[in-house]
Amino acid sequence: MTNDELSSQRKKARANLELLQMKKRAGLVSQADIDEANQIYQALINYQAPPDVATSDVSTSGGSAVPAAMPVSEFTALLETLTGEKAELHKQMCLRSNQLAQIPDAVNAKALVDEIQDYKARRNEIGAKIAFLKANGRLPDVVADPSPQQEQTAFMESLPGDKYELARLLKDSILPNLSKARAKLALSANEVKKVHYGQKVARLEAEAALVRARMNAL
């Protein structure tokens, strides 16, 4: 992707932004449309084209290979797609939030609340991708999370074989951390922290059970 092509993409983004600003003054588009177009334009202004995307998909820094930024046309298309997806998820979240306000207090609205939280989490996830894309010119590498079974196996393999060491691990590390995680879970004010500390409590409870089982087997 040449500098001329990058300049062309920037000009198109600027022209689109200026057109939307004119439409906004005429009441034809919303401020959200302006903000999205401005985000794309600013991202293109800050975008650094890779030196030779056609022949290499990695660049080096300090001797280690790192993925290179994607071509500007792909960058622009991806940014527009992600921005649109984020806006749609935010819209759906707001629609359901408005519905929630109309539900009487006596009616169980858990299903609707769960939907709202799901849309919020997906919106935030895409927002994080957009931020990474703007900063790095590419999406983050996808690393598969280990399965609960894999985590459990790895934890079991790391345990000492001495009953005294197991008791000390339980008393000095796992149980204090479990107590702290439970306290933070109880004080969590938003759903993101509740999920985080809920998962941490579940993991530590499982580890405590595994340690006790190993102690009983010795």
What topology does this entry show?
Layout: H1 3-25, H2 31-46, E1 58-61, E2 64-67, H3 72-101, H4 110-136, H5 148-158, H6 163-187, H7 191-217
Antiparallel strand pairs: 1-2
Helix pairs in contact: 1-2, 2-3, 3-4, 6-7
Helix content: over 70%
Poorly predicted regions? 51-67
Computed Rg: 25 Å
The class by helix and strand makeup works out as mainly alpha
Amino- and carboxy-terminal Cα gap? 65 Å
Q: Could you tell me the mean pLDDT? A: 77
Helix-strand string: HHEEHHHHH
- Main sheet characteristics: 2 strands, antiparallel
Shape: elongated
| Order of strands in the sheet with most strands | 1-2
Based on DSSP secondary structure assignment, what is the total number of beta strands? 2
Number of helices: 7
Walk me through this protein's architecture.
The chain has 218 residues and is mainly alpha-helical. It folds into two domains: 3-136, no CATH class; 148-217. It is built from seven helices and two strands, in the order ααββααααα. The protein has a two-stranded antiparallel sheet with strand order 1-2. α1 runs antiparallel to α2 and α6 packs antiparallel against α7 (191-217). The longest helix has 30 residues, at 72-101. The chain starts with a helix and ends with a helix.
